[in-house]
Structure prediction request, 182 residues.
Amino acid sequence: MTPYRARHLPLALAMLLAAGPAGAADAPVACLPGGGGHLQLEISGDFAAVVDWGNAGTACDGGPRPGGDALRLVFSREADELMVLVGITGLERGGTGDGLLANVTIVRQGMGRFYGTLGAHACVIDVTANLPEPGIENGYRVSGRGRCAAGIEAIGRTGEIRVSPFEFTGLAFWPVQDEQGP
Prediction:
């Protein structure tokens, strides 16, 4: 990892954590208002966890990266003190695809521990659905499955974790202006 990335990746993740998921602060946490949101994976290595998060109690949010070259999906569950970020390259509004390169980052919230693939070369995602979510302007229900061929390195210290093949359904916002440019 370059010194620049070592210094700035945690800062970028901290800014994302501070932004939090979209929605009202008093509303019960649910990934998708109509149900069906989920994230399933297992983590081993520096720490172990079984992530089997259903819709209720799971916060999810996402949208295209600046420049539109990838989609970011974020899943978190306060009770588990974990956040999982998946960056999928080459995915456009409403698009699907197999073998899309992906970056996976896992944050142990409250502990200052970050793990990341440090590029979109170690994991691949098959996006099986990317459909408008009724009642949510510019909201899309994105579903798929992924796998990582290599370990996910600790950022800023030694160590790594591995993740099992995983499945997800989350919410992404595809604002029209992101596709049209300035």
